[in-house]
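Supplementary Text 2. Reproducibility record for the structural model of the 222-residue chain.

All settings were left at their defaults, and a single model was retained for analysis rather than an ensemble. We include the record here because the model underlies the residue-level annotations in Supplementary Table 4.
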Amino acid sequence: MEWLFPSQCVCCQTFTSRRTKICEFCLDDFPFFALEQSNLLLRPDIARLMNLPHCDGLIACGWYQGALKVWLSEYKFHRRTHHKAILQQLITHQMQRFCQTSYFSPDLCLIMPLTYRRYFWRGYNQVGQTWRPALENIAPINSCLMRVKQTKPQSELNRRQRRNNIKGAFCVTQSLHGKNVIVVDDVITTGSTMDEAARACLEAGAAKVWAFATALTPLFSK
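Retained model, structure tokens:
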């Protein structure tokens, strides 16, 4: 089957030796966030954009623009499931780099839950689908983070409305006493949703909470 239907890189269209979506050369050239500091909240430009007072750290693959924005939005909103493998490869690559450079040692991973209505219409949680392969090599995945409030889509609201919309939307159904926790989402824009989830984790006893995301929305992004 490999001989009959050879794999091609989605970026340069060259044939790949394995069933990967991006060849090693395009993967090396992809505009990942650099991980010299291993905590993107230490970058002044990102710290000014993101409102994450309840998070101790932040890691993401790149900006929500260009090819990454296309792949994410096509999978998330239009069910283009062939983009899932692309996102999984990017996330796994960045997480491998994170594990090599970071001092943070997580005890468990929490995937950002969808509202029941959104999950019903979409049929899947795109965060879990794209992140699960990478997270399984980092820490156990737990489902104790729950949405207890139906909220409007954050993309339709401004910064102040986002904070009010998401307030009190999450709860944690078990004790996280003394644990280092990762909360994972696909896109962080202002940080309101992520920070509210992190606050719920701290109230459940978590020692530290790090935010993981596929992409961060740049300032003045359309």
